[in-house]
Design goal:
162 residues, mainly alpha, 0% strand, elongated
């Protein structure tokens, strides 16, 4: 019969690194995530702009007078692409829909203004300045609207790791 000892069995615990919660994430991580979301929104917006411009050009060239259709088609292309950009900006970050849509819309607005410097006839070159900036502001609003719509979409289910 073995002799009894008064010693306790020692157990070893391994320390696991603490995971950062969303409230404890560093400011650098938040800005990187926001920049990545804005970039995803811009890429999605530019791809949808390219596809919608192609469809709009095909529709305009099939008409008898394509010059009369340039303005309505440009508006019909610009605003939905801003909406799609805001939607993708939020869906890639999943937090702060207003901020995601605002940053994506501001980048689109700045790109539009920069393009307007080199192509003065782009986005209604003969229109009054206030109306042109109002349309660019509409891009900003549609981008925010797209992010807000994305926040109401059903959330993805997390897969269990095997």
């Amino acid at each position: 019969m073995p002799a009894k000892t008064n010693r306790k069995k020692s157990t070893t615990y391994t320390k696991r690194p603490l995971e950062k919660s969303s409230s404890e994430a560093s400011a650098k991580d938040r800005w990187l995530s926001l920049g990545r979301a804005t970039g995803c929104g811009l890429v999605a917006s530019l791809i949808s702009l390219l596809l919608l411009c192609t469809a709009g050009a095909a529709a305009a060239f099939s008409a008898a007078d394509p010059d009369a259709l340039i303005t309505p088609i440009s508006l019909g292309v610009m605003l939905p692409s801003a909406l799609i950009g805001g939607l993708f900006a939020f869906r890639s970050r999943r937090r702060a829909p207003f901020v995601c849509g605002l940053l994506c819309g501001l980048c689109l607005l700045l790109a539009s203004a920069f393009l307007g410097l080199f192509l003065p006839d782009a986005l209604g070159g003969t229109w009054p300045t206030a109306l042109r900036w109002g349309l660019r502001g509409g891009m900003l609003g549609f981008s925010i609207l797209g992010a807000m719509i994305g926040s109401y979409a059903p959330k993805r289910k997390k897969r269990k790791k095997r």
